[in-house]
């Protein structure tokens, strides 16, 4: 019994020792955790504590960086791109206002003019002496000449427009050389008559008034010739000589032979004058003069059966014209003779030309200025001031470009081969007003190289070193 009591006490003592150990271990662990927490807090707090020197260092501006770009070896081309408009140039239209007489009888008064034939179409090229349109049975045709048909050309007329008509007839093979230049005489009438017959139309004539004058003059001549013949018979039968030319009448009261001859000579002169003013003429309603042939048809706004209420055909008096609109700031880059490339984005057509002339500044909307090009067509798409460039074709312009807005590209300057080129920002002027670039070596060291500049294009400029060395691949300073 006593032994059992002793064993229980020993077990309790052992259990109590184990508990003490556990509590001690817990105390040690807690102390360690507290130490770690204190150390971490100290480190964190230390991170927010700076010395005055460190604070100054942290607030100092960063060391500036250097921006560089490589020197390149390339061909430079400076191009200028602008807009342009094709126009028909100067045009001339035929607007018939009357029907010509083709015999001694005048046409019916008040008859409405009617389109009776259309023989051409838009953009067609036409030659001289060929009917284009027909109205009320009469042709409209073209002849070469600068002076518009501003009046009917009648026999006996004189002037520069008659000279023009005679030259036009001569160019078609109809001679007028027996007439004085500038005088609408018999030869000109005959040449014009042949032209109308070739076209298949009766020639227009001056009309009933001149025909009646000729008829009366001819009757007068015939009567006097009859009297002269009777006087000759009377003299032959009586054997008496006629009185002097100035005597008004013979003894029996009849006109003397001399008087009759005098009157006959005057009557024949009157007949010649009347005949000179009668016959074939050229109505202004039937002819269109253009400076050069073949002429291009701009429009034919009528069809057979239409009444004539406006132009029946419009022709370009010259070739199409291209006018470019140059930004005034590019004036120094452009001069006459430069080649240009022309592109129509609408049709895809491309062609080439050269600058013929550079016009004076045009400011749309300003007093005394306009936006019409020298060819008479309005310039499209002009919003600000521009310099009009007249551009001529290397060959003739394609008629499909008429009226189109196009892109014009010209090369203002170009290097003959590959040259050293740097960004424009790399070129600076030094104190002596010399241009130079700054080269940065791989080590960061910098050196100045003076240069001369040449062609610039797309932000790059040609440079040629005048002191120091410069090679493709070197890096030049463009900014900091």
TrEMBL record:
Keywords: Membrane, Transmembrane, Transmembrane helix. Residues 158-216 form the Peptidoglycan binding-like domain. Residues 242-261 are annotated as: Disordered. Residues 242-256 have a biased composition (Low complexity). InterPro entries: Peptidoglycan-bd-like (IPR002477), PGBD-like_sf (IPR036365), PGBDSf (IPR036366), TAT_signal (IPR006311). The keyword Transmembrane helix applies. PROSITE patterns: TAT. Gene3D superfamilies: 2.40.420.20, PGBD-like superfamily/PGBD. The chain crosses the membrane at residues 27-49. This is Peptidoglycan-binding protein.
């Amino acid at each position: 019994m006593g032994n059992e009591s002793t064993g229980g006490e020993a077990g309790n003592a052992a259990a109590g020792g184990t508990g003490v150990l556990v509590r001690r271990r817990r105390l040690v662990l807690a102390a360690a955790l507290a130490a770690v927490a204190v150390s971490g807090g100290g480190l964190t707090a230390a991170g927010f504590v700076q010395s005055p020197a460190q604070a100054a260092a942290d607030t100092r501006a960063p060391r500036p960086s250097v921006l560089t770009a490589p020197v390149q070896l390339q061909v430079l081309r400076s191009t200028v791109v602008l807009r342009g408009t094709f126009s028909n140039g100067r045009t001339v239209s035929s607007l018939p206002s009357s029907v010509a007489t083709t015999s001694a009888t005048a046409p019916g008064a008040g008859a409405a003019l009617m389109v009776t034939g259309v023989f051409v179409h838009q953009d067609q090229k036409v030659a001289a002496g060929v009917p284009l349109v027909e109205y009320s049975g009469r042709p409209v045709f073209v002849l070469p000449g600068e002076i518009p048909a501003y009046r009917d050309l009648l026999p006996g007329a004189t002037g520069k427009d008659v000279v023009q008509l005679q030259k036009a007839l001569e160019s078609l093979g109809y001679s007028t050389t027996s007439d004085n230049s500038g005088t609408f005489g018999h030869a000109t009438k005959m040449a014009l008559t042949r032209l109308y017959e070739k076209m298949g139309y009766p020639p227009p004539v001056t009309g009933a008034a001149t025909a009646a004058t000729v008829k009366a003059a001819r009757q007068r001549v015939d009567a006097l010739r009859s009297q002269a013949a009777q006087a000759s018979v009377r003299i032959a039968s009586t054997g008496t000589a006629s009185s002097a030319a100035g005597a008004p009448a013979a003894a029996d009261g009849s006109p003397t032979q001399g008087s009759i001859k005098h009157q006959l000579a005057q009557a024949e002169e009157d007949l010649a004058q009347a005949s000179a003013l009668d016959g074939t003429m050229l109505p202004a309603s039937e002819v269109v003069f253009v400076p050069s042939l073949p002429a291009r048809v701009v429009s034919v706004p009528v069809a057979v059966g239409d009444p004539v209420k406006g132009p029946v055909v419009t022709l370009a008096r010259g070739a199409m014209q291209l006018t470019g609109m140059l930004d005034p700031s590019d004036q120094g880059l452009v001069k006459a003779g430069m080649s240009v490339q022309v592109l129509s984005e609408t049709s895809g057509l491309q062609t080439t030309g050269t600058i013929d002339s550079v016009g004076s500044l045009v400011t749309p909307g300003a007093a005394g200025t306009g936006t019409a090009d020298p060819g008479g067509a309005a310039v499209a798409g002009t919003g600000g001031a521009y310099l009009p460039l007249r551009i001529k074709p290397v060959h003739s312009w394609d008629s499909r470009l008429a009226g189109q807005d196009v892109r014009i590209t010209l090369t203002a300057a170009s290097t003959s081969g590959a040259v050293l080129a740097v960004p424009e920002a790399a070129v600076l002027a030094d104190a002596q007003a010399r241009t130079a670039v700054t080269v940065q070596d791989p080590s960061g060291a910098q050196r100045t190289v003076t240069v001369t500049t040449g062609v610039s294009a797309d932000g790059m400029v040609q440079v040629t070193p005048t002191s120091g060395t410069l090679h493709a691949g070197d890096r030049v300073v463009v900014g900091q």
